[in-house]
Amino acid sequence: MSAVIRPYGDTTGDGMVQLSFTLPVTHDKRAEGAALQLAKKMGLDPALLVHAKPMGPDFTFFVVYGSVHHLVNLDEVVVVEREYPILSAKEANAAIRKHLRRRLVVVGACIGTDAHTVGIDAILNIKGFAGEKGLEYYSEIKVVNLGAQVLVPDLVAQARAEKADAVLISQVVTQKDAHIHNTMQMSAAFREAYPAGQVPILVAGGPRFEEGSEAKLGIDRIFGRGTTPSEVASYLVHEMSVRKGKKQP
What we know:
Blueprint: E1 2-3, E2 15-23, H1 29-41, E3 47-54, E4 60-68, H2 89-99, E5 104-110, H3 118-124, E6 141-145, H4 152-162, E7 166-170, H5 178-193, E8 201-205, H6 214-217, E9 221-223, H7 229-247
Parallel strand pairs: 5-6, 5-7, 7-8, 8-9
Antiparallel strand pairs: 1-2, 2-4, 3-4
Helix pairs in contact: 2-7, 4-5
């Protein structure tokens, strides 16, 4: 969906919105009427149907334009700012050698019934994502990628066996908030299995996680859509140095 955003308090006119969606109906005039009805219920008034295309025999894709009367206040938008610099692979490796004097161990997996490994592979595998090499490329990071549909007890056991410094999970399947339940189950299991203050860095990634909900989920960091390997590596280096600093007398 795209829209014209006017400054808060601007009453010079309504904003125009372009909205696209699919309905489980066969393409005909009745379906087009249903699309306009839905658009009006969503607050577009008047609404104009500009495109309708069959998506197989039982679905239709629509594009609708319309006026909306809602105001957007950008001052009320809360954004989670990154509190650490983005490091190159060379800089991250050097920081790990300085602070740990050994390789940083990262265990990754898709937990529960989630079989979508594209996200976790983009971060961990050497081929990487968006022109960046994955964490396997970093000489000072040992990556253990457990793949898909990993049970939480197995993840905890593998993390303990590998003496993991960080655990990365990916959650794409979100029916009935499965990503939330699975992540909370995972964090609780780690806190039960490890002494206080020795739980690995817990990181979750996926398109449906809400920024700023780490405390609720019991984890240290959330990464959303479009995250690159260097962002994750830089965060791990940052969090590792913070934790090590806290342990110093």
